[in-house]
Amino acid sequence: MSGIVVVGTQWGDEGKGKITDFLAGKADVIVRFQGGNNAGHTIVFDGKKFALHLIPSGIFRKDAINVMANGMVINPKAMLEELEMLKQGGVTEFNLAISDRAHIILPYHIVLDGMLEELKEDNKKVGTTKKGIGPTYTDKASRIGIRVCDFVDDEVFKEKLTDNLNYYNKIFKLFGKEELNTEAIYQEYLEYAEAMKPYVTDTGVLLNRLLEDDKKVVFEGAQGALLCMDHGTYPFVTSSSPTAASVPVNTGVSPKYINEVIGITKAYSTRVGSGFFATEFDDDVAHQIREVGHEYGTTTGRPRRIGWIDTVVLRHTKRISGLTALSVMLLDVLSGVKTLQVCVAYKLNGEIIDYMPASIKDYEKCIPIYMEIPGWDEDITKVTNFSGLPVNAQLYLNKLAELVGVEVAIFSVGPDRTQTVVLKELI
Ligand code: IMP
N or C, which terminus of the chain has less Cβ within 10 Å? Predict the structure, then answer.
């Protein structure tokens, strides 16, 4: 009866894939519960590098069940390409279960994603990944979405696809966009539906049964809590909720099964896309961090914006996700930075505050208040325990734990599986 949720505490790209893959070694089941191929997880092992967008990170573990839950939006073409990429890399057996209630991303969602961004003023653009995520969740909320169970039933799929394209083609015409051909999409996607069918099941029933049987389940969030539609930096967010609180709704699992919530944070901060980011800076040190940390998007290749670690953000995530432990990633990237800044609070209109204002107008006025911590020069990529870290790196981790009020259970000093130091066993 044990469920552990892996939550990104910042704006995504914190290294959740690495920790999920690490925990997956001891788990029976790995579940992706929201988002789609807007996410990007890089997993490195045995000298091979795999970029996963949709498939749960446990896919490399032969004996683990990988679940794509109902809260996801799935591009079937992208998913099958990912399975093919894995096959090419030598992963040939897939223990995969896809929820019959997840929603399908279709070509019109991708056109709409681009079109809606194009129509916005520059400073209003969200900077989406243009994978059709927002429009697919919009259809879900509008009750015209096509779910996996509809998709694998050719009659239902054809009817819904026809209805939706009748509607969206009118919009495309209005905005001077090329109309999409229903029959051509139907024929192409029928093949994808056939290939997907063997994996489709009611994953809510499956997961509850596995948890009742005392199986260990890792719930893998995509993106980060600050991109949550409800609790993030709205409107510069994604269209789902990557928090631990969303797991029961997004998987059909009872909340009583969530025992641990591990918050993944970089030792600094990054953000891609638009939206204010209080601790952002752009100088030689930011450049150094971007290059050493390979801070370029896995999905879009965009350079990531760099900032200092922000404990107001981490406390916000702790509150909304009930973090029970922290995993601090990319600590090695900070080697050689002379002085580290840690944001402890904000100043808003002359007042010191300890929360993230809901209003973007107010948030943009927040000035970070920093605590300085001296850096270290040593290469720490081969460190295997806490006492092996330079004193200032130890101080940095201890200070983060103290300021956030959550213990550091794991820290990471490099991309490989072996460069993961566990201070407290979580599973
Ligand atoms: P969307 O999810 O493509 O609609 O994009 C909405 C916002 O979330 C944009 O600012 C994206 O850059 C951001 N975003 C979406 N997925 C990720 C991710 O996996 N990592 C980081 N940012 C993301």
Answer: N
